[in-house]
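Notebook B, p. 112. Complex prediction, attempt 2.
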Amino acid sequence: MSTLGEVASHIRSKNAGPFWLTIDVFLPDAASFEKVCAQLSTDEVARRLGAAPASVRRFEIADLAVIKFSLPRPAVQGSVADRDMHGASFALLIGDIELEAG
Amino acid sequence: MGVRVLVPSGALGLGWEEAALAAGLAAGPDLIAIDGGSTDSGPHYLGTGTSKYSRASTKAEWAALIDARARAGVPLIIGTAGTCGADAAVDWLVDITREIAAERGERLRLAVLKSGQAPAEIAEALAERRLEPLPGAPEVTPEAVAECTNIVALAGAEQVQAALATGADIVIAGRTTDTAIIAALPLARGCHAGAAWHGAKVGECGALATTRPNSGSILLDFDEEGFTLTALGPGAGATPRSVSAHMLYENADPFILHEPGGHLDVRRARYEALDAARVRVTGSRWVASPRYTVKLEGARRAGFQVVTLALVRDPRYVAAIREWTADIARRVVEKARARTGRADFSVELRLIGLDATLGALDRAARAGSEVGVLGIVTAGDETLAGEVAKTLNPYLLHHPLTEDEPMPTFAFPFSPAEIARGAAYEFCLHHVMALDDPMQAFRLTTLEVGP
């Protein structure tokens, strides 16, 4: 078993405007990209972010070996309930998702 | 027909490397274009119509670009002036420009494009269902919109073209899309529309799409088939990857970018390395929409805030920090309601060192040797926020975990313990508005400054 954070070369989260959050998972090569595309479930990503699975958009960008997730922000940027103005820390929540061996 | 745009930096206030800007000027650009803002630092700036960057830094960088403009003999444009692009922020940069012109004895012709909207009119448009919510838009009432302190519409290429067509030396624009200030000129000169928008998107953050983001400046060449990005910083490179990856950045959709009047589709874009510093891009597509819409941004006061910070180092209290703070929050709300006779306030105690960053989503939260308790009071007015925060203070100072122990005391880094944050703002619009004429929601004026 390895985690997404161990397989990915970098995971980054950012605001995409005040109402959306976007998370880019950079994989080191085509092989790991294919593997993670097959093994990483959008439902699990949604669960870690406290989001409804249907609200999470997923993009697989083979040319860049990147999987991107975009979702309505858990709290609107800068609202009283928001804790992270730039959405920088949400990436950490999916890093410990476990992938199957192989 | 080619158009060459020099982007000095990702934003005015972030700076650039002198050598990179000089190389760009030597290449003979047709336009110098820079972004002045973003929503990324939160609703305060739009709410108050102010800039995030210091006036002195802004003036120094803006004066350097005014110099660069004179040397190149081409127009200089800034979009989303003063971080938020509200009318007051535009006026602020016009004032700075006036000062620079006076100090240098240089006469400058300015075109000023304003994007501010009257909240009452936008509230009416919402009530009449003339605004269309975008995905993820908050539930918002016409009353809430009417309370916005600032609403701006994001100008596209058409409004920027009108400003450039005045022949001004400098265009100071309020809120525009990040891309419009770069795409407008190549579009006006008949360059490939997909390339104009795609190049503008890749270039709007300056050297972020290169291998040395801190070098600041890049050059964009547009023509009838595509665009070429050139990294300008010493040792800076551009690769198909560094350029194509930029569509991921702060974009919900990495292939589609909505703009006034249509959208950019880069699914079939091809990226080719010309040499170590240049990437050629073709195959981007612009899809015009039947209606012309502009996006709106608004900010309204969410209340007034006073914050306080107490530091808990006693291991017994650190171990019981959740119970301790939950007990305090309950007691303080009860007491403040009784003492003030009001209920329009909230008290939150965030635990720094435990889960202040991610809250309940953090499954790996664990306390270290100490916890910072950040008390956040939000209330309907400033006086009440202060009253509630002062009611909170004795608890954070002395509240015991159990009845039968000596009175504890906790650490405070400041006196007074309370820090007034003033008004707290929130974003409240994520909607588009249809226009019959692109200039309908915008105001363009020209003026001359200097001796």
